[in-house]
Amino acid sequence: MKKFLTTTLTVLLALSPIANGASSRSSAKERRVQDIRSFAGDDELGTGKAGRRKISPQLEESLQENNLRQKPNKRQKVIIQLREMPKAPDAMMIQAVSETMDEQMLSAEINTNDMRSTVLRSKIEGLTGRLKKAFNAIGMISADMPLAKIRELADDSEVAYISPDRQTTSTGHIETTSGALAARTLGGTISYNGSGIGVAVLDSGIDPNHNLVKASANHPGIVFQKDFTVTSGTGNPADPFGHGTHVASIINGSDLVSNGAYRGIAPGVNILNLKVLDDSGSGASSFALAALDWCIANKTTYNIRVINLSLGAPAVDSYTNDPLCLAAKRAHDAGIVVVAAAGNDGKTSTGQKLFGTIHSPGAEPAIITVGATNTYGTNLRSDDAVASYSSRGPTRGSRLVGLIKKYDNFIKPDVVAPGNKIIAARSNNATGGGNGLVNSNPNFAVGTQTDPTNKLMRMSGTSMAAPIVAGAAALMLQANPNLTPSLVKAILMYSAQPIMGASSFEQGAGRVNVEGAVRLAKLAVVSSAMTKGQALISLPTTQSSTIVGVACPWGKGMVTNYCLVYGDALMTYWQSVYVQGRRLNDATTFAGSVLTINTIDITAGVSKTQGALSSSGTLIADGTLVSDGCLLADGTLIADGTLIADGTLISDGTLVSDGTLIADSRARTLTALLGDDTSAMEAE
What we know:
The chain is built from 20 helices and 31 strands. By secondary structure, it is an alpha/beta fold. The strands form 10 sheets. Strands 6, 7, 8, 10, 12, 14, 15 and 18 form an 8-stranded mixed sheet that branches. Strands 2-3-1-4 form a 4-stranded antiparallel sheet, with helices on both faces.
């Protein structure tokens, strides 16, 4: 993709229109200034209409190109974000909003947004556009607009931001090596299996007949299904593509196949099958927005506590403007743990590491972004490594500040989990049998099963890692329903086990440890009126888990924005960033040239690193600095996309400069699905 800033300025300054073959130097200059106002935003220049900065850089580039080509009838599918409505002062330091009040506030917001969408529909139709769908729980609209009319729409006071309706794609022994098996017995007479927790799987659909996912004894299976890829009718919530069934069975796989060898992390959860990827494994962002909107509106009805997003779109816009990020954050604010795959763009075609390739919505700081590990097919964790294809941070969405592009540059992913050559359910919903993935790639099929409802397939990717963490979150919430999404995330990171030699940009806080996370969740004492410094968890003397007979130490830290924080106090005391609706990255702040702990929200006893680390394999505090957090926070010092070899930021890879991914995403996805060519999980 063209670098937006360079391309646009070149076009604007070089191609002013000429009337009647002549134009004075002053009038040409005036036209160039006006064009730059359109590009940069009139707030920066002090004059003109305020709507110009409401358009995403990618869409702005399309507008400029359309102006040059003079195609007034060209249309564009867009996502329109409504202006955020003012809210009553929020006690962000206190966890004290009752569930009833929360539901009343949400209902009022949905009704208000419904009225605003109706008014905006008239404006859209007056510009010869078409409102396709209003997502009133998240305050967004999908529409089809003439490109030539988008600026006029942006001038409307109800419009906050307009971006393209981008395509999303799937990014493509577990119970034992993750620690889930060890966590089962922590409930005493109650087996921790996710019972009663609703988990929404936004993917390519689910095969309702497969024995790993269908309802059976002590296995609720699919309790609701809806196809969001169709605009009318019921559609087909089954899974002709084959991705969603595989993902769902990693979460809730039953013990009906091969004597439980492929049991999921949380077999007792209620699965909500929300199809947002079509039968070829791709879909518009608006499909995912519609499903996220539905989840928020129906959270109470189905006790939706977790959303799994094993999908992604290019992270072009900053998380502050990206529609998928904003919708995921809205679900987080509503009390839902949102888990997203990091992406499968961690290396070039020649095998060189790529940094800065985290997908949207994984670029949203509030949610849990998951990278993939390679377990080499063993239950022991000592040989685990970050998978070569797993997308690496920092996040590279950007926004314009004047004429300068500022990158988000947050450390991601948050944790990693097994994702290489994972064996799980194979759907049988394609025309003529099988599914699109296996029919195109027969080597994905594994096992000797002949009954289609028992068949298995092997896939690799962060798509396979994310549902492991989603399942872990469900077990934690079964153990302690009072946990907030931010506290779930904090516990998962605190109890994670760092991988020796891997940096924070590759593994976040480390590989997920389900036993440790569930144990801490059970110990947490959370009420509806928690305040900073209040007692939270009485920590065990030895902060580690025993998995397959081996001690697995907890890293005792968590990722914030440009660094990591660590210390027992993170779990011993309630931190204000655990309040529902808060982001953990608020724990540290950057002002001027200084990165500090936010003492308003964080208690004494918490320390921070100076940036991203290379892990020693034990405590986060023992890692070696590989990236200065102040350079990350600046947002402009690492924007050239070249190999940085001096150790200032990243010494062993290439940093992607503009947050976009390569055009041949389908080929790259399949390469990731095949996985690293090593020993792997065996079929029974």
